[in-house]
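Hi all, long-time lurker, first post. I run a small reading group and we've been trying to get comfortable going from sequence to structure in the token notation. Rather than ask abstract questions, I figured I'd post a concrete chain and ask someone more experienced to write out its structure so we can walk through it together at our next meeting. Sequence below, copied exactly:
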Amino acid sequence: MHWKLVIDAADPHRQAAFWGAALDYTVEDHSILIGNLLSAGAVTPDQVTEVDGRRAWLTLAAVRHPEDPHDPVSGTGLGRRILFQRVPEPKQGKNRLHLDLHPGPDARATTVARLESLGATTQHEVAEPGGSWVVMQDPNTLDYQFWSDPRCRPPP
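-- Answer (accepted) --
Happy to help. Here is the structure in token form:
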């Protein structure tokens, strides 16, 4: 079964840039597909924008694992992939889903600092008998956590 994680965002391109850098993923390049669809009249110029000198979907952006296959014509990842879609309403309330990232037992502090330099914010740190972690938010206020020890898991 093929799947992707879809995340609502106010600015999908900013989110894709952040998570691409955070996870060492590749930001998908859909410019060839967009050019073909524009030439065929299947999409209109108001449905696209320019990001980093390339045509991109106005309301969508995605990242994919660099080692996974992708369609060379569409630029779409065919493996581990996160798609960000623009939504008009702001986030309301707590996320029903969050990402746990495990940078390794000795890399938490440097990874937190790197992600803060990309626009993330630290919300708080937690230390419990079952482990310790840092709760952070990305630029779109999506919560995620860093674990200090990859063997630790959140309490039930």
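A couple of things your group might point at:
The longest strand covers residues 121-128.
The first helix runs from residue 12 to 23.
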